[in-house]
Amino acid sequence: MLERAEIIRKEYLRHDKKFPHVWCPGCGNGIVMGALLRAIHSIGLSKDEVVLASGIGCSGRLPTYVDFNTIHTTHGRALTFATGIKLAKPELSVLTVMGDGDATAIGGNHFIHAARRNIDLTAIIINNATYGMTGGQYSPATPYGAKSTTSVYGHVEHAFNIAELAVAAGASFVARSTVYHASHLEQMIKKAIEKRGFSVMEIISNCHVQHGRRNKLGGAVEMINGFKERAVTIGKAEKMNPEELEGKITIGVLTDVEKPISTDEYRRIAAEAKEKADNITKAKEKNGIKRYEE
């Protein structure tokens, strides 16, 4: 009997076409991909039931390696393409994978309005606090004071709290984990996919080549172990004061609420409009008024 890992490798990866991957050794994107595949497998979804869309950046390469229905879109536009797919094929499980810059800079407007509308999508955001692929520029998630290629003397802007931004914008499910907490990450992704409505999964990851090197945070192992040291669960965080939470990463489910889903609402309105139009046509025909046709 095949081991779980072997089943996932054979079923879900384009293992004979697209490897070796382009990610740097130690990159957290591989951990995210593994957790995502395990979550999908545990839910029992077939690869034909899943759509994975991405934008531009290191995370944008992930759909290249997985054997789902995949689409590699333009910068910041993964959610717009995913919205169109979900409206056309509501029976599919539609996911996006984006970086912190991709999702919250050029894609920020799409992100907050997808949350506001509560579209039935899962948004996976890999937050490594930098634009890794394009040269290490600062992103909306780069910490205050951090160095980057566009803030060589230290970053003077303050970072978005991506998960809390999603909560405030109206997402029905928001969770956070890190690439150190691989098992926890898998469970959070599973919950996000299973939730109907707009689900956001923020994943704190490392870019040791760009962000880590410039800020003397060490290599991949040191950065990932740092997530372990800084992480606190939501339950524990609720008992801590702001000073104790300074520099910490809260992990777990931030919100899980039931709200009307816009993709369902669109179909309901369309059905009501069609029924009304059909009733008007029937009434006119009954009264001897022929339907006007171009």
From TrEMBL:
- Give the keywords, sorted: Oxidoreductase
Q: Which GO terms describe its biological process?
A: cellular respiration; small molecule metabolic process
What is this enzyme's class at the first EC digit?
A: oxidoreductase
Q: Which residues form the Thiamine pyrophosphate enzyme TPP-binding domain?
A: 56-203
What Gene Ontology molecular-function terms does this entry list? Answer: 2-oxoglutarate synthase activity; thiamine pyrophosphate binding
Q: What is its EC number?
A: 1.2.7.3
State whether keyword Oxidoreductase applies.
yes
Show the InterPro entries listed in the entry.
Answer: 2-oxoacid:Fd_oxidoreductase (IPR051457), THDP-binding (IPR029061), TPP_enzyme_TPP-bd (IPR011766)
Q: Does the keyword Magnesium apply?
A: no
Transmembrane annotation, as ranges: none
**A Pfam family name for this chain?**
TPP_enzyme_C
Q: State what protein this is by name.
A: 2-oxoacid:ferredoxin oxidoreductase, beta subunit
Query: Which source organism does the UniProt entry give?
Result: Desulfocapsa sulfexigens (strain DSM 10523 / SB164P1)
From which lineage does this chain's organism come?
A: Bacteria, Pseudomonadati, Thermodesulfobacteriota, Desulfobulbia, Desulfobulbales
